[in-house]
Every structure is written in C-alpha cells, then in structure tokens.
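Let us practice reading a record.
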Amino acid sequence: MTTDLPPRRQAKLVFDAADSSLDATATLLGALKKQEKHTRDLYKKARKQNIDLYLNGLPLYALKEVGASGVRTSILEQAGVHTIGDVLSRGPRRLQHIRGIGPHSAQTAHEAAERIQRIAEKKLSVRLHDDLRPKAETKLLDALMHVRDVHVTLAGIEREAVEVDRELTALVRTARPATRWWQRPFLSKSRRADVASALVAAASYVAAMQENGLAAALAAAARKVETDKPHEPETMWSRYHEEPETFDTLLRSVIGFVPDDAENLPLGAPPQRGPGPRDGITTVYRMFDHQDTLLYVGISNRVDVRIEQHRASKEWFWRVDRITTINYPDRQTALDVEKHAIQTEKPLYNIIHNR
C-alpha cells in the first residue's frame, strides 16, 4: 500500500470535483427531506382542523353513545350548547352554571366529550376535498406536490444519489488531510497510507461519475430543484382530481401512518362542510319491525349516518323492517316531537322519556 501523497494542488482538483457532486446530492436529498418534514407539519395542522370540524358539527346525541345517557341534552341545547365541540370549549366549570345542569352532569358530559375527542384523534384522517378546498388542505397538497416534484426530478438517480452521498462522503472525510498543508507533514505512516488510499479511491469514484454522466445528472437535478416555482392552486387541485389515489399513497408514504377512514368512527363520519340541502332541517325517524311494532324513535340532522350507527351498535337492529322519517325546520321542534312520540307511542327500545 502506497503512502505517497500527490501534490496538494492535484489533491485539491479531486476534492473540488467530489465536493461539487456532494453539494448536488445534498441539495437533492435535503430538498426531499425538507419537503417531507414540511408535509408532516402541515398534515398535523390539517388533521387538527378536520378533528375540530368534526367535533364542532357532532350533535349532542353522541354523548349518550359513550355512556352519558343521564345528561339532559335538551337543557344544554336551550343554553346554546349544541355540539360536542361546544361541550369541550365550555368545560365542566362553565357547564355547571347552566340552570338544570349540576356539577355531576357537567363533569359527566365533559368527560364523555373528551372520550369522543380521543376516538376522533385516534381514527380521523385528513381527506383532501377537491370541491371544498379548505386552506389547510390546499397548503398540504402544495407540500405534497413539491415532494412529488423532487421525486420526479430524482427519478432514476435517487438510489445513486443516496449511494454517492454515503460512499463519497466517507472517502472525502478520510482523504481530506491531503489538501491541508498544515496536516500533511504530521501524518503518521499508517494515517498517511489511509489518506493516500482514500484519495485514490475518491479520484476513481469521481472519474467514473464523470464518465457515466452521473455527475452531470446530479448537477442538473440540483439546479432544477432549486428553481422550482410555486404551484397554482387550480393546477394543484386539477392534478389531484385526475389521480387522487397517487397523492393519497404519497401522503401515506410521507406520513408513515394515516389513521383509519372516518367511516370507521363509531360516532359516524364527519359532518358535511359547506351549505347543503339539509341545513337547518332535523328529522324525526321511527323504526318498525315486520309487524309494525314501534321499536325506536330518534332525531338526527343526518339520518343516514345515524341509522348506520344503530346498525353497528344496537343488538335489536336486526328486527328493523321499515323506517319512516318526518323533517322539521328546527332542532327544538324535532326534540319536542320526539319526546311526545316516545311518551305516547311507547317504542320498545327508547329509554329516555319512556318511563
């Protein structure tokens, strides 16, 4: 093994070429890492927004689904507490000041709302809405587009870039003293041999990269990443609309974990955002068996979701043969109708108002 070091100027030429390629790989891999981190941060914000939206749109009936059946939700609604989000924001101390709600009921309602919140935090994911395009989701999609752009730029050379970053960095680190005039005279024999050997290997590595075009490809890719322009929102959503599965898969790969879809929530899917035909309408529904025996009376502003909840959680649901619905213009009217129906029609499986 040779211990002779080439002239410092010659060693420096090798290092200049090596550093140029290492700078390019650092730009490429750094851009990918930076955009992936940015995507993860934006995902957390968008997911929190989605969870808050879900809780702020989930009616108080959900309290009964998690064990707070004794809470008088009608009193809460009369005091302006209409959703699980309202319960959480007020807290037990403010809730107990509502006339008709004591400390125990306030604590029970708040603890039940916190259980619902934990379920949502465990299960609820971010789902990009092409029609609504919320601000947080638009930012998240923009970050995903940048990640994808870097992947496209790195296509075919990402593995090579990672290898160059690893292998050439190690060689340069070992051979670096060959360019430092204050270190060269003081290297031990074994250390000098290691430096000389690493310098030869680095020179061969750089020469091979230049010969097969990898050095030029890395440099061109780095320039492209550095000059990438911002995406227009309309273009982003158009591309997402064309291939949503691609972006959903990319999101999952960047995040590493995406919670289950909202349909798996025991309390139903998140409320629909934006204006819709059911805004301001509450439905009273009745469930009958095949002999027209009334099984259950309930209210909901999303009957389809509520029925699916019954299907999943009620042991008696197999008996349901038909369901009737009547719409009312406001929730209080529907509550009054529900109460009267339970008290007079005596459905088999209602507990509240049916004593």
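A brief commentary: Residues 346 and 354 are 6 Å apart (CA to CA).
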